[in-house]
Design brief:
381 residues; alpha+beta; Butyryl-Coa Dehydrogenase, subunit A, domain 1; Butyryl-CoA Dehydrogenase, subunit A, domain 2; Butyryl-CoA Dehydrogenase, subunit A, domain 3; four-stranded mixed beta sheet; four-stranded antiparallel beta sheet; 10 strands; globular
Length: 381
């Protein structure tokens, strides 16, 4: 098992870091303070090719492998790009576009992937509901077949990119069963479809530049050809996204740990107390060491998942749950220590460590809570 990066991957990572520092990072603090999505940065991400790296070139993608896509996401975090923008990228590219690419027809791929890969369209995934979060099988949104159409009714909650999405992959129950894994299907729903409305925008503690909202479907009529994949296969399609949710979507956290290490080391050398730099105090040095330990362990877990995908191996859900849990829970203390290391400055918005601290709070919640990961791990053991 070789996790070493090729020379081309290392060069590409440096290119992404340089691009992000120049074109995106200077606006990060401003957009976070305003809780605004940065459309200009989104356009530049598309132009650079970061919104569709692993899609085939004939569909507007970069034709890269999974590891390269993960490295690119890590590079964005290492450059200092905020967690909101990288979260929106992950939901767009991996939860929405990749689901269409993996399960869609040739016609669906040709219609949607080029626009999503370029950033012309923004995508989202509608899975979570007010009463169905980590328990995907309990979703209650329904789709009824009526002639050459499906009629969709229900509400989705906590949808990343919901307020700005042009297209959504929406999961709904099509079978007779009121609960359970069977009878869940996926549909492609475009903005402007009658009966499809965006609900209230949610005000969040962190990842503020990633807009989040409800999605509401009231007698929403969609063409029968907008069924994605086979009817009733939606649950297993949603589970496939776990491979991305626990690799490429976690990679910016790993990069962010590297960014915070650099910031902490620099500040600890510049900040003087009691006549010497605080870097000379053992307690400070240990805090920074803990961040590094967390980063290296998290990177190994995430690279392993990406490597397995590139080898065509089926995902080991135990390993995926371990990776998600580790990044979610074990990154909280290092991020907290980093914020405290900066003292009062770490509590102020002018220092980006405050934003990074808030953004990190989503890690044990989004994509399946840490408690759910423990349930999965114990069950699979």
């Amino acid at each position: 098992m070789d996790f070493s990066l090729t020379e081309e991957q290392l060069m590409f990572k440096e290119q992404v870091i340089k691009f992000a520092r120049k074109e995106i990072v200077p606006r990060v603090q401003e957009h976070d303070l305003r809780s605004e999505f940065d459309f200009e940065s989104w356009r530049k991400l598309g132009e650079f090719g970061l919104l569709g790296l692993h899609f085939p070139e004939e569909l507007g993608g970069g034709g890269s492998d999974v590891m390269t896509a993960v490295v690119a996401s890590e590079a964005l975090g290492e450059a200092g790009v905020d967690g909101g923008l990288t979260l929106s990228l992950g939901a767009h590219t991996y939860l929405c576009a990749d689901t269409i690419f993996a399960h869609g027809t040739d016609e669906q791929r040709k219609r949607y992937i080029p626009k999503l890969a370029s950033g012309e369209w923004i995508g989202c995934m509608g899975l979570t509901e007010p009463g169905a979060g980590s328990d995907v099988a309990s979703l209650r949104t329904r789709a009824m077949r009526q002639g050459d159409s499906w009629v969709l009714n229900g509400t989705k909650m906590f949808i990343t990119n919901g307020p700005i999405a042009d297209v959504a992959v929406v999961y709904a129950r099509t079978g007779q069963s009121a609960a359970g894994q069977e009878g869940i299907s996926a549909f492609i729903v475009e903005k402007g479809t009658p009966g499809f409305a965006v609900g209230r925008k949610l005000v969040k503690m962190g990842v503020r530049t990633s807009p989040t909202s409800e999605l509401i479907f009231e007698d929403c009529v969609i063409p029968v050809e907008n069924l994605l994949g086979q009817e009733g296969a939606g649950f297993f399609m949603a589970m496939r996204t776990v491979e991305w949710d626990r690799s490429a979507l976690l990679a910016p956290f790993v990069g962010g740990l590297g960014y915070i290490i650099e910031r902490c080391c620099r500040y600890a050398q510049e900040r003087h107390q009691f006549g010497r730099p605080i870097a000379s105090f053992q307690a400070i040095r240990h805090k920074i060491a803990d961040v590094k330990i967390c980063q290296e362990a998290a990177r190994s877990l995430i690279y392993r998942i990406a490597w397995c995908k590139d080898q065509g191996r089926p995902l080991n859900h135990l390993e995926a749950a371990v990776a998600k849990l580790f990044v979610g829970d074990w990154s909280l203390k290092p991020m907290n220590d980093a914020m405290v290391l900066f003292g009062g400055y770490g509590y102020c918005h002018e220092y980006d460590v405050e934003r990074i601290f808030r953004d990190s709070r989503i890690a044990p919640i989004g994509g399946g809570t840490s408690d759910i990961q423990k349930v999965l791990i114990s069950r699979l053991m």
